[in-house]
């Protein structure tokens, strides 16, 4: 019997807020209502509202400003995100194209990160690496997010805001798909810990070629799994 997937309250809030942003109901620099009002508006608990806002801030759609509250970020390239979501409903090849694009971006990012990294950048990457390791060890619910947070932190080392924006565009759809399809296993997560360490070490040592190589090796199983799942001969 096919399992029925129930959308989480936080996911519903994210989808609704994204629609409001894309339709212009919420404009850049608009301040969102307080958590209490959003909770009443969507008919969910405040914890679900906090989770949704945290994720949207993580993906660059919102930002929290002292004394101003949570505001909508100027969209720019991120407006394309809605187009990607629609595209994924059409064809399985479309999701594979996202995976393929992610590999191209991340291999380049790893190489640039090794060339341009600074100590402050490396400290932040190390924190995300350790946060992922802890999430795996404790089997936390947000393991997949912690994984992507490590990958996104490499953009800081690469000193390229455009690459970071592109990663922010494709990451949410990949993340949602991974959670829905349960792509990552306990074994693959343990292996990812070692691979993340290899990537970090290559970047820290300034070895650009090695950083690109280990990143490509790290992402190869995801590419192969996507091909196998959708029976793609590419």
Automatic annotation (TrEMBL):
Pfam families on file: FCD (PF07729), GntR (PF00392)
Ranges of residues in domain HTH gntR-type: 7-75
Gene3D superfamilies noted in UniProt: GntR ligand-binding domain-like (1.20.120.530), Winged helix-like DNA-binding domain superfamily/Winged helix DNA-binding domain (1.10.10.10)
Organismal lineage: Bacteria, Pseudomonadati, Bacteroidota, Cytophagia, Cytophagales
Keywords associated with the record: Coiled coil, DNA-binding, Transcription, Transcription regulation
InterPro entries per the UniProt record, alphabetical: GntR_C (IPR011711), TF_FadR/GntR_C (IPR008920), Tscrpt_reg_HTH_GntR (IPR000524), WH-like_DNA-bd_sf (IPR036388), WH_DNA-bd_sf (IPR036390)
Coiled coil: 115-142
A Gene Ontology molecular function term of the record: DNA-binding transcription factor activity
Protein name in UniProt: FadR family transcriptional regulator
